Amino acid sequence: MGSLLVGGLVFVFLSMATSLGLMVRSRLPDHHLNAESKDVIRLATAVVGTLSALTLGLLIASAKSSYDNAEVEMRTAAARVLLLDRVMAQYGPETDKARQLMRELIERRLSRGWTAETTDETFGNAPGEYQDIEAVQAVLRSLLPRGAVQHSLQARAVEVSGMMAEAHWLLVESGEEGLPWAFVTVLVCWLSLLFATFGLQAPANPTVLSILLVCALSVAGAIFLVSDMANPYLGLIRVSDAPLQFAIERLGKP
Known about the structure:
By secondary structure, the protein is mainly alpha-helical. It has helices at 3-27, 35-91, 96-112, 129-141, 147-173, 181-201, 206-229, 242-250.
């Protein structure tokens, strides 16, 4: 589900909850909303408000952690690509094919995007990314090193390409994580209850209604940011592919 859609739905739910509270207020007997009743309502909603704040804080921390980890993964991937290219360059011209395959792999990754959904898609005769990585590894393993230096460089290249393959499968396996939707659902229910009580206690004048709508929009904006950051390779707030762009400019150099 898109982050903008999630934020929009939250805004709609909170607005409907506020409207429901206003409708119930107009139908309740006066003694149901006297000073003592309002005090009890405020005490009860304070508990729900505290729980909502804690849950929203946990979601923000989780989304920020996912975004930071994705940034580290992107920089690490770019560094490994450059390292592997330099190791193969030191080995000699026998690795030219493997270097070209790796360049094509990165170009394809940049064109498809850095997501678990697109990483193994095939386009025409183009293989999935895992097949590209395995093709590079096959070329490296088929090398016949001459001397201790080339043997060491081959071993290092195979090791780094293995780390790239491992990172690929980690991305695929973690691609469905995203937001903990159970948390989000419970949080929206709590927030809807809070806004319903706001409407229940608030006088229906333009100033109060405007403030409540602005508050609902602010909360929906926070949920939107959490949802967007929890999917760091998609949406409006995404991890930059600048490290890979920088890496591809340096690939293939002697």
